[in-house]
């Protein structure tokens, strides 16, 4: 049951995007990729699928509605959580270099700051499930927490491994500067083509589905089981902000993968086209094919999977960097 409803001001919701033109462009690209993903998966399953611009239509429709607040839910926290999640991803985008197109200021932060920002959406979703007062939200909360504990370890091993590879080459133990990582690969070749780095590449690829909530790791928000879990009570602009957060996080994770393993050295229009091509291929391989081919895992299966294979691959990759790098 709900006892309060509120309509968030559309201008207030979208105003932060005007401060970050790059974030607005990332959101546009992310929504287009989500539309292409739906069409691609539909074709694989012999369906027509929705139009390419359906993700845009969904957000516009949600923005025109009201956000209903469940009875007993803390209003301020309930409405603040999606805004915090979306803003965290707007900031994360500003940290990521796009070779030939955008170079972030070193004062904004490095790989450590980005790692912290990447954990914010998962924490926000857990708090949202708790704040809603829904049983389904509580179930989604517990699933999200277990999944985050499982994939954060392998992700940290990847980031440390790449940072150590770059740092050791510069005569220091480790370098968390994203620009240093890019410059090293431009001088010595992309890590994607270094066989000693392949365990870390595979580890990062395995972390993407759980980090983005993609099948078979969309367990916290399983529609057929817990009706979107932590987000089941959200509606209107608040839910639209969660969708924006999800889209921006997709672009952050894809761009981070490009920065860590294949940044390239092009400039101008060619650099932009190269980035768009990498994002599209990366997205379709890491999300669309996997989502169409594999059914959802149970939470215990996902937890054990990440503690076995990606964790082992990450440790192997880190050891190879230490002794071969």
From TrEMBL:
Main location class: membrane
Keywords for the protein's UniProt record, in alphabetical order: Membrane, Transmembrane, Transmembrane helix
Pfam families hit by this protein: NADHdh
Membrane topology: Multi-pass membrane protein
Subcellular location per the Swiss-Prot or TrEMBL entry: Membrane
Domain of life of the source: Bacteria
Residue spans crossing the bilayer: 12-33, 77-99, 111-141, 153-176, 196-217, 302-323
Any one of the GO CC terms: plasma membrane
PANTHER family reported for this sequence: FORMATE HYDROGENLYASE SUBUNIT 4, FORMATE HYDROGENLYASE SUBUNIT 4-RELATED
Protein name: NADH-quinone oxidoreductase subunit H
Lineage, top ranks: Bacteria, Pseudomonadati, Pseudomonadota, Gammaproteobacteria, Alteromonadales
């Amino acid at each position: 049951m709900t006892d309060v409803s509120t309509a968030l001001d559309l201008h207030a919701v979208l105003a932060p995007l005007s401060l970050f033109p790059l974030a607005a462009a990332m959101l546009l690209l992310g929504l287009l990729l989500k539309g292409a993903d739906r069409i691609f998966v539909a074709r694989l399953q012999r369906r027509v699928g929705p139009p390419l611009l359906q993700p845009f239509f969904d957000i516009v429709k949600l923005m025109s509605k009201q956000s209903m607040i469940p009875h007993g839910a803390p209003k301020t926290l309930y409405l603040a959580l999606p805004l915090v999640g979306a803003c965290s991803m707007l900031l994360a985008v500003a940290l990521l270099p796009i070779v030939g197109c955008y170079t972030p200021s070193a004062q904004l932060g490095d790989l450590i700051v980005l790692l912290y920002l990447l954990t914010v959406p998962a924490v926000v979703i857990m708090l949202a499930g708790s704040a809603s007062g829904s049983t389904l939200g509580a179930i989604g909360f517990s699933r999200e927490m277990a999944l985050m504990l499982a994939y954060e370890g392998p992700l940290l091993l990847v980031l440390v491994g790449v940072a150590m590879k770059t740092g050791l080459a510069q005569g220091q133990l480790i370098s968390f500067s994203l620009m240093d990582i890019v410059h090293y690969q431009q001088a010595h070749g992309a890590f994607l083509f270094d066989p000693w780095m392949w365990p870390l590449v595979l580890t990062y690829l395995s972390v993407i589905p759980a980090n983005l909530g993609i099948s078979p790791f969309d367990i916290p928000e399983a529609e057929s089981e817990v009706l979107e879990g932590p987000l089941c009570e959200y509606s209107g602009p608040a839910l639209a902000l969660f969708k924006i957060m999800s889209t921006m996080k997709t672009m952050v994770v894809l761009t981070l993968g490009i920065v860590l393993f294949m940044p390239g050295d092009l400039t101008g229009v060619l650099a932009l086209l190269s980035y768009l091509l990498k994002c599209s291929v990366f997205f379709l391989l890491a999300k669309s094919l996997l989502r169409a081919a594999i059914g959802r895992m149970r939470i215990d299966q996902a937890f054990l999977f990440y503690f076995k294979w990606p964790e082992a691959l990450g440790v192997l990759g880190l050891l190879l960097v230490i002794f071969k790098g």
